[in-house]
Amino acid sequence: MTLGDLVKKYRESHNISMDEFSKMCALSKGYISMLENNINPRSNKPIAPTLPTIKKIATAMNADVNSVLKIIDSDQEISLDSKSENLEPKTESSPKIMQHYNQLNDLGKYEAEKRVEELTHFPQYTHERKAAHDDYINEPGELELMKNDLSSLKIPGSNE
Predict the structure, then answer these.
(1) Going by fewer Cβ within 10 Å, which terminus of the chain is more open, N or C?
(2) pLDDT tier, 135 (very low <50, low <70, confident <90, very high otherwise)
(3) How much of the chain exceeds pLDDT 90, in percent?
(4) Does pLDDT of 13 surpass 80?
(5) What is d(CA 132, CA 145) in angstroms, rounded to the nearest whole number?
(6) C-alpha–C-alpha distance, residues 15 and 13, integer Å
(7) Radius of gyration of the chain, Cα coordinates, nearest whole angstrom
(8) What is the pLDDT of residue 88?
(9) Residue 5 reports pLDDT greater than 80
(10) DSSP secondary structure string for all residues of the chain
(11) List of long-range contacts for 78-86, beta carbons under 8 Å, 24+ apart
């Protein structure tokens, strides 16, 4: 059994779409499709997933990597060179958060997504930060309020 066969069997037995599974393991839907078809469209050769890919898939299936490796055929080529498989999108997602997410039912997943989205509205949890009043800069009086706020800020290292 190839890794793609295992993925397809898992998806079908758990009634999970390819799109849902791709999100669960932080891989593209196109890559999951290539795995299941076991063909690299660039070379027309069988897919050779990397160990990090297998780990992502194992995590999505709530399995450990060793179990997955024991299930797939010895014919399944596995790439040890992470640069050789550039079909996968580069992600910063944490397997730990995905593992927790994957244990949730549909209602739990909905709530988790809402909470993560809520966190994006707090500047301390996001990469982009705006200055005070920046979103209303064109409103009358806002520029003056910004100047007052800025003048009241303490400069780090000063005694003022």
Answers:
(1) C
(2) low
(3) 28
(4) yes
(5) 9
(6) 6
(7) 23
(8) 46
(9) yes
(10) --HHHHHHHHHHHTT--HHHHHHHTT--HHHHHHHHHT-BTTTTB----BHHHHHHHHHHTT--HHHHHHHS-TTS--BS-TTT-TTSPP----HHHHHHHHTS-HHHHHHHHHHHHHHTTSGGGSS----TTGGGTTSTTHHHHHHHHHHHSPPTT---
(11) 78/48, 78/49, 78/50, 78/51, 78/54, 79/48, 79/49, 79/50, 80/50, 80/51, 81/50, 82/50, 82/52, 84/48, 84/50, 85/48, 85/49, 85/50, 85/53
Q: Hey, what are 46's tokens?
A: 């069988």
Integer Cα distance of 106 and 112 in angstroms? 10
Count Cβ atoms below 10 Å from residue 2 Cβ, excluding itself: 19
Structure-block tokens of residue 126: 């996001």
What values do phi and psi take at 12, rounded to 5?
-65, -40
d(Cα 18, Cα 24) in Å, to the nearest integer?
10
In the chain, the percentage of residues whose pLDDT exceeds 70 is 74
